[in-house]
Design a protein that fits this description.
By secondary structure, the protein is mainly α. The protein is about 65% helix and about 0% strand. It has 13 helices and two strands. The chain has a two-stranded antiparallel sheet. Helix 1 crosses helix 13, helix 3 runs parallel beside helix 8 and helix 8 runs antiparallel to helix 11. The longest helix has about 35 residues. The chain is globular.
Length: about 300
């Protein structure tokens, strides 16, 4: 390094030369890959492993956990497709998704938009919307059973207003059992979904809504024409989450309230997987339905993603 020697009376400050790298010194290595190994192993063992096992068991003839196993090939698929109970479950699941998802997402979005406007008491409203999410599934089922049983609150309210002819055994009637389960799905999911929408709408700039109102747009047009396109991709994410929860999580409500009956009027695909595996002890049939359920879920996710993708 060259050092300047100042002349007498010269106040020039010498400038240090550029630092030189030590010979043979290597930059520090990143340890991110090593730190990710435990998470990857956990994911492979507890996520990819069971998923692969579903496809393996679906190709087996397995009449019980302690029973001998034989290869069935596509025999389980033919058995499932020839079973009328399976097609009843497909119809019930399709009706459940077609009714619950639009009602839940639409009402939750409007409720979330209202909370995002910060009306008086909006903080308390947020907490109240979380109440269904804080209640356990058996407790929710008990609430609906108390309301919809033959001597429950619903029939008591109808009789009190002189509409006793409309009373019914709601959970035991083939025409209303599935509708009761759908109502439970909507009630359990709409509050939590509304809070998610309110949180996302709170990050939308206020100038957008103010500009729309200055142009003469009311709350309805501002909600659907201004705010909805801005969070369209987020609506798609929330819809996918509720789709998966309704598709795969409806078995617990069916198990606690209707047991799939009367007959198969309230049997869904997820409950059919449970019923065949743990009640009928037909693991091959159960996991074949599980494979079809997985494919239906994958197709539904891709469809929702395409519908709600941003167009700009």
């Amino acid at each position: 390094m060259t050092t300047l020697t100042p002349a007498p009376g010269d106040t020039t400050v010498p400038r240090p030369g550029p630092p030189t790298a030590r010979a043979g010194r290597r930059p520090p290595r990143q340890g991110g890959t090593v730190l990710a190994v435990p998470a990857l192993v956990w994911y492979l063992v507890f996520m990819v492993g069971p998923l692969a096992a579903i496809f393996v068991v679906a190709a087996l003839r397995w009449p019980g956990m302690l029973q001998p196993v034989s290869f069935a090939g596509l025999g389980n698929v033919r058995t499932v497709l020839a079973d009328p109970v399976f097609w009843d479950a497909v119809r019930n699941t399709a009706v459940q998704l077609a009714v619950a998802l639009p009602v839940m997402i639409g009402c939750a979005y409007m409720l979330g938009y209202y909370v995002a406007q910060k009306p008086p008491g909006h903080r308390v409203i947020r907490y109240l919307l979380f109440i269904p999410g804080l209640i356990s599934t058996p407790a929710k089922a008990m609430v609906f059973y108390a309301a919809l049983s033959p001597d429950g609150l619903a029939n008591g309210a109808l009789e009190s207003v002189g509409a006793g002819s409309l009373t019914d055994a709601w959970l035991a009637s083939p025409s209303t059992a599935l509708a009761c389960l759908i109502a439970l799905d909507i009630w359990a999911g709409i509050g939590f979904t509304a809070v998610l929408f309110a949180a996302r709408l709170g990050s939308v700039p206020d100038e957008l809504g103010e500009a729309a109102q200055l142009d003469g747009a009311g709350h309805w047009r501002t909600m659907w024409r201004i705010h909805f396109p801005v969070i369209r991709d987020y609506v798609g994410v929330v819809t996918m989450l509720q789709f998966l929860w309704t598709l795969f999580g409806s078995a617990q409500h069916v198990l606690l309230l209707t047991q799939g009956g009367p007959g198969s009027s309230s049997t869904t695909l997820s409950f059919l997987v449970y019923q065949k595996a743990f009640i009928a002890a037909d693991l091959g049939y159960s996991q074949t339905v599980g494979v079809l359920l997985f494919l239906a879920g994958l197709a539904g996710l891709l469809t929702i993603r395409r519908v709600f993708r941003q167009t700009y």
